[in-house]
Amino acid sequence: MRALVLITVLALPTAIQAEGARVTLDCDFQRSCTEAGDCTPYGGSQSITLAPTATDASGTGDWKITLGDGPAFEARGLARTGPWVWQPGDGHLHTLALSGTKSALWMRQWLPTERYPDTYAEIDIMTCEITA
Fold first, then answer.
1. Beta-carbon neighbour count of residue 100 at 10 Å?
2. pLDDT digit string (tens) for 77-101?
3. Which of 83, 104, 121, 126 is the most buried (most CB within 10 A)?
4. Could you write out the three-class secondary structure of the chain?
C-alpha cells in the first residue's frame, strides 16, 4: 500500500509538488557491494527525504535530498521516481534510484582527488518504506 502512495505522490502535478510535497523513505540496508561486484551483508538504516523544488511535469529538475537529520543537499532528478544525483562536497558523487516498489539502490562514487587518486564506488541495496 505504501508503494502505491509513493507512486501516487511522485505522480502528482509539478505545481503541487513544488508547493512542498515531499516523500520520506525509511530504508534498511540489505547488502553493500563494491564496484567490482563483491557484496557483503550490511545492516543499519537511513531515512531519506526527497523534496522537489523546481521540476517540469515529468519530475526532471531540481530537488532537495536530506539524509536523516543532516543538511539538505541540492540534487538533480531525471524523473519523479529518480534517479537523483548530488554531491555533498567531499569528493563523492551520490546516486539514489528507486529499483522497485519497496527497494532502492544508493551508489556512492569517490572521484579522483589528491587524497584519493583512484575512483571507486560502493553500492547499497536497500528495502524502503514510505513514512511521510
1. 10
2. 999 889 999 998 767 899 999 998 8
3. 126
4. CHHHHHHHHHCCCHHHHHCCCCEEEEEEEEEEEECCCCEEECCCEEEEEEEEEEECCCCCEEEEEEECCCCEEEEEECCCCCCEEECCCCCEEEEEEECCCCEEEEEEEECCCCCCCCCEEEEEEEEEEECC
Q: What is the pTM of this model?
A: 0.79
Please give the Cα distance from 95 to 1 (Å, whole number): 26
Q: Which three cell numbers stand for residue 105?
A: 539502490
Q: CA-to-CA distance for 93 and 13, rounded, in angstroms? A: 29
Residue 26: the pLDDT is 97
